[in-house]
Amino acid sequence: MDAFYLVKIGEILLKLGNRKEFEDRLRSQLNRRLEGLPHKVELYPGRYFVSVPEEHAAAAEFVLSRTPGVNGFARAFKVEKSVDAVFDAALKVAAQAVGQGGRRFKAESRRSDKSFELGSFELSAEIGARVLEAFPETKVDLHQPEFTVNVEIRERAYVYGNPSPGLRGLPVGSGGKGLLLLSGGIDSPVAGYMMARRGLSLEAIYFHAYPYTSQEAKDKVVELARVVASFSGGIKLWTIPFTETQLKIKKEARDDLVTVMTRAAMMEAAGLLAERIGANSLVTGESLGQVASQTAENLRFTQSRTSLPVLRPLIGIDKEETIAMAKKIGSCEISILPYEDCCVVFSPEHPLLRAKLERETEAYEKLGLREAIAKAVTEAELIAIPYPLPPSD
Amino acid sequence: MIYLDWASTSPPDLSLLDEAARIAGQAYGNPSSRHRLGHEAKEKLDEARHRFAAQLGAGKTGRVVFTGGGSEADALPLLAVLRQALSSRRDGSIKRLHIVTTEIEHAAVYEEVLLLKSLGLEASFVRPESDGIIDPEKIGAAIGRDTALVAVMAVNNETGAVQDLAGIAGAVAGAAKALGRPAPRIHVDAVQTLGKVEFRPAELGIDTAAFSAHKLGGPRACGALWIRAALEPLAVGGGQEGGIRPGTESLQSAWAFSRAAEQAAGALEDNRRRARALEARLIEGLISGAGAIPLPLGRKAGDERYSPFILSAAFPGLSGEVLVRALSDEGLALSTGSACSSNLRKKGRRVLAAMGLDEGLAFSSLRISTGPATTESEIDSFLETSAALYRRLRP
Can you name the residues that pair with B188 across neighbouring β-strands? Predict the structure, then answer.
């Protein structure tokens, strides 16, 4: 028997004007992520349905729990629209919940097909009575139920228990494409995850300063990109050979300016690459005041090297909260591996805290980095990371 | 590849490994079995044991226990302290026995002592002087009423510093006597000695010493612990190796190790002389060529307080790790320090920091370690390449 899932969508429903486009995106996202498995994605008004052969159930749940635009999903019984069939499925759902220790419950019905013989109130009441009769240990609790027996009478009848939460947000691609500045740290993968949830499809850029940064540091970034890819869909990772540019800055910039000049150069390089790949924005893990390069004045200067909007979803997020998110998405344990992303020899002891746009722009122009940056972007190495669908049982 | 990382491991001596495999293949019985094949295996194993003991000049003093590596050999005497601490109290509490060790021990000892400390034992970590050498008086001063074990390494794996073990044993005995108590046991991590530095445990007044086979062309996962008198292990199992290291013995490993030790001991004088010459070439070349700084500060060629096979050097302003990476691309294999700690999460240079070395200098250091097969031209290649890379990469 196939594993059959009822999928709830949320924010898409609000987008009345281009709802069709959003729906198509989500459907194609689900299809793409399930590619390689026999599967079916159906779209009915307000609901998606996904079915896969039973042995791929875990893979399907991996996908449904990580695809932005999905509000929630539940393994469901799809039955004919008859009272008996619905009651039968409702008892199966209840049996499962009771088996897992559930006692307090409620029944909830939705009936969009008004021709069905029972109204939703009567349907819920009747299911409640039957569950109580079959499982005397249970008790109705309308306010804090441990499980809910859900029935939806639509084009078919669907019966399911507690839904699992989805990521919510918007389907990837509905916000266009962003270029994520991915370092080896804790913040940038979380920033990528957050923007993927807002509908950005992502490519990532990593600045590699070999031999100052190690091959291990780069491998780590590939692993982090893989985590982001599990939410955003596959991801393209561009590695920019940045040694020459960084050395030039280190040798020619005033010591306290090295960090902010390097950040500016990275923005310029990211802007160039974004143009090439058709990205509409840059995404960074910057958080106000977290480190010296992340004061408002310094952000103003560094972002002045690109005309694209720089999206910083973590700008007002406390480090502890970011770490909690990183743990949740599974990037934290990779991020804390000890390979440094930007070699310590390049960071000054007392970096400039408050850049003045005109003064620092002048200093930056004097460094004459344009050619080195353009060359680095041309020499970017591309690693295409596929969607990391887990192996099936 | 030019290999200058002999303190991490050495290229295996394949003829010895073949010989050992053949012997073990013939005498394949379990040395504990009562049949003829078992007896044969036991005879060969004892032969290997005696051969190994002979290289230590230990004669009939004490006994050699083959282990699953140098780290395990280090752990056995430390864990015996834990057993003692747990079994001295009847109420299930732990007696707060004390271990004295140093800040410069290999992770096999250092991390294990930290673990024991977290489990309720007491520990003191003695700092070395700025020359990387432990002052025996400071070990003596750390001895208390509950000190059960002193653990000090023979030759440091990053600086090559050779510790004054006889002096330390004397200081320990003196301190114990002053406290009116018997002397605590002394354990020595002697992993960097075989074939490199004269080391005769039975003559030093110490109780146990740990060795590793792969540092001298022997197999991995093979070590030995010399013990003066029985110790009480935490793992017991089938009672092999005098009850100290349970598990069916590997005749193959023990045989190869004992033969490697025999060869290394035979070549010790020659190899040392050659290593001294290479050391001089290195130190002179590092200073005059790249402008690097041999460590510990002020280390001179020919100084008997250091193993000539190990030298750390600082390349100020450039991370040692970066230089190691770049050297690797040029075909030279070196490490920054102990390979066993370069994997760990914390990145500090514990040993150099303990000597009070400036953090920047420590960070910029790498270790050159030579072996019997190292040649002058390899040293010259290293000197040339490292100087060129240093000029190019120093930001």
Answer: B209
